[in-house]
UniProtKB/TrEMBL annotation:
Span of domain Methyltransferase type: 159-248
Source domain of life: Bacteria
Keyword Transferase assigned: yes
Keyword list, A-Z: Methyltransferase, Transferase
Species of the source: Devosia lucknowensis
Alphabetized Gene3D superfamilies for the sequence: Tetratricopeptide repeat domain, Vaccinia Virus protein VP39
One Gene Ontology MF term: methyltransferase activity
Protein name: Predicted methyltransferase, contains TPR repeat
InterPro entries xref list: Methyltransf_12 (IPR013217), SAM-dependent_MTases_sf (IPR029063), TPR-like_helical_dom_sf (IPR011990)
Amino acid sequence: MFSKVLVLTKAFYSSGDVIADRRADYARMLADQGDHQAASELMEQALEIAPDWAAGWDLAGGYHQKAGNIAAAIAAWRRLEALDDDGVFGARLKLAAHNAGPAGEGTAVGYVEALFDQYAAKFEDALVGKLGYRVPDLLDDLVGAEMQRLGIAGFERALDLGCGTGLMGEKLRAKVGHLEGVDISAAMIAETARKGIYDSLQKAELVATLNSRRADADLVTAADVLIYCGALQPILAALLPAMRPGGLVAFSLEAHDGDEELFLRPSLRYAHGVEAARKALLLAGLEILRFETAVLRFDRGAPITGILVVARRPPVELTAANDAVEGGDVAA
């Protein structure tokens, strides 16, 4: 994985041609000064020299977008999509966010992994310090309230999906006997390993992690994670078998008020419809304990409203009672 990070970094910053790189550097300087039109024109000149430079097409697309030249941005992202076999630059998502292609329903693994590998070292400073991120605090408050209401003294085994640098894990640690963290980014895992929060850490994709387990977690959390995963149904279908009967799950979503189940924002994060999310939980067989909307953080000064969920896999006795009713074993 370490070698992949090095390759990715090289891909971002070098075309392999000195002249093309120099023009790209000048384009970045112009973009930093706010002249995105000039930056995009200079980037196009660099790409005439290095036409197969994936990262160059990504830069060009971004400059065109910020200059308001959406058609040119889409053209650049189409070239990018053809060159980027691993999807680390997220061309498919960028096209989908501008109605120029399908987003798909699953996680864009290559893009998310690359994004957080690059972001890991400055993650907490940017998200907490500058964007007012507070999802771990909000989810922890809701989980604590449900523990008190249900008479739960603590959890034996918890799984923190998309653990990042451990912001959620720090909140959970005192409530959990064995705390496991999972993240798709090796760089994020390395950052949180230094804190010593988790009993075990694993680099893995979310659904694959859930599919590998069988009813061993009595708490599962996913703070600001499912916004990169698309449709909820496949995740919830994998989630239930990984939880013990009576176990809790707590997670966040970004929200929208429209009729759509979900849509992809220009930020390349998914927003889920409030009622569609509630319906997905019920269809999955989860008992909704808390379902609230709140401001999760800020993006370019604007508040991002989301959904906070705490749900429960029905306890054995409740499941058995429902089965008896459905089977006609309980008298009317």
